[in-house]
Give the backbone structure.
Amino acid sequence: QSTWGYLNILLATDQSDILQKFIDSNGWAIMNTWLKDANAQNNIPFIIEQLKVFKMMPVTVEILKANDTAKIIKRYSKEDTRGEPFRLAAEHCVLNWLRIIRGSQSTDEAKLVKASGPAPTLLKADPQPQPSTSKEPGKVAAGKLKKVTKTEKVKEGEGPRGSGL
């Protein structure tokens, strides 16, 4: 029953610096334990309230990867068996996290591009290979090469994920 009290205190906290101190003091792991216990007891009302707290937490990629909390909540967002309020609370939590994470990545990318100066030029093969004039069967000549910048490559979705570009 004391977990309800702690949960209500967290719900009433609207200052992200206080929530950050809670996370830094092993709070994320504690909430993971509460989530698993409530799940084992099928305590839907408690999980829904806890999802509200998770949604307002100042998360980072590192925090989300610290344990299986994010995976559990993402799984909840796809469940139909516990009712629509349950699924929607989980879905809102996941969507909020994605917004926060994507926002921080955009800021990091902008800082990186600004700090690194102009993007280096790469060569990119034309998607339509030209037929070979060679007499070797099955050999296809390389297509025309087009100059592109790394920025264009990332915009096209071809850049490696997690590379900071």
